[in-house]
Amino acid sequence: MTDSTKSRERGADKRRRLTAAAARVLHQQGVERTTIADIAHAADVPVGNVYYYFKTKDELVQAALAEHSGYLAELTGELDRLPDPLGRLKALVGTWVGQRDVAARYGCPTGTLAVELDKRAEGDMDLEAGRLIRSLLDWVERQFRELGLPDPGGLAIALVGAYQGMSLLANALRDPEIMTREGNRLTRWLDALPDGAAGHPNP
Amino acid sequence: MTDSTKSRERGADKRRRLTAAAARVLHQQGVERTTIADIAHAADVPVGNVYYYFKTKDELVQAALAEHSGYLAELTGELDRLPDPLGRLKALVGTWVGQRDVAARYGCPTGTLAVELDKRAEGDMDLEAGRLIRSLLDWVERQFRELGLPDPGGLAIALVGAYQGMSLLANALRDPEIMTREGNRLTRWLDALPDGAAGHPNP
DNA sequence: GTCTATATCCAGATAGAC
DNA sequence: GTCTATCTGGATATAGAC
């Protein structure tokens, strides 16, 4: 292994650490209140060095978005290994409930990012957050379609919307139990769906 | 009318204008990105004069919260004049759908404020946003209780959560039609509720 | 490639003239 | 009560030494 290879690997490692720290800290503190120094500290990288890897703060936000996108791809990839679509959707709800504590403290990472980026003037990063949410919606819609239910797109909006809503309420009221109770409700709803209750899946 | 009375009225008027402008601009631009100057300009008040009425930016945020709180009280007060609880809830959904364009552009004022204030370190204003949401939840819960439905608190979380979720999705995807479609779904759900479908009101 | 020192900018807040 | 001029702090970003 040459020196330049080692250097490149260390460089890539720092970049990875910065990306992971950005995703974590931006979620916890919010985009506007997080400074480059905060992220550098969390990643254990000297503050001034950050600009070698990311030319602007916006690039760090982009990297955080990509990180969340990768997490979502990983999650749906695992769920896809389950045999039936209904089981996949119920496992998705289970994942949400499993993250109830972080949701109650900081909200859904994707949802809060979308809200914050919508207010941010620069670039069209709000649209990128929209794309991330859209890709979750698409995956959910595919499951409903496989189940042969009518209006799978509408059902996807209902399910993902319920998730965003319960995350926001759990966060605003600082009560993780809201996630548990609403999760149970969603699971019951999913179970009842194929038997013909598809007419009024809401709220 | 004395001079001091006129003065007081003009002063109160400026304060009112600043409060209204704060509620509007903070919703549109977000708390962190909005400067005192932005609010002063929107209220047509000289920038340096703001500090006579509000000693800190936080006080302006508080005033905006109070403004939203007043709006909510006014809305529920009008709805309370409707004869039956089901009609009140359906009218509430209708109000939400009626605001679909502003929701798709800027999100639900209360919800986005709650998300932003949660990230804001200073004070416990996040809890105040929680109280505002809680007061809406309480009013909704009262309607469900009057209808004699089981678990009115859970139903309130489901309905308000659905509203927050559909607002966030409409905003992230910039699509007001999401509000229309989800509103229809909620109305159908409400209509079906008293007839015994109360078992699975979700998502 | 790494890091320090610093330039630049801008928002919040204040002092004090009118 | 009203408004201007200014202070101050903090954050992004850059220049350049190592």
Automatic annotation (TrEMBL), chains A, B:
Keywords from the UniProt entry: DNA-binding, Transcription, Transcription regulation
The keyword Cytoplasm is assigned to this record: no
Entry superkingdom: Bacteria
Coiled-coil intervals, chain numbering: none
InterPro entries, alphabetized: Homeodomain-like_sf, HTH_TetR, Tet_transcr_reg_TetR-rel_C_sf
Domain (HTH tetR-type): residue spans on this chain: 12-72
UniProt-listed Pfam families: TetR_N
DNA-binding region: 35-54
PANTHER family, sorted: HTH-TYPE TRANSCRIPTIONAL REGULATOR YJDC (PTHR47506:SF1), TRANSCRIPTIONAL REGULATORY PROTEIN (PTHR47506)
Full protein name: AcrR family transcriptional regulator
Taxonomic lineage from the root: Bacteria, Bacillati, Actinomycetota, Actinomycetes, Streptosporangiales
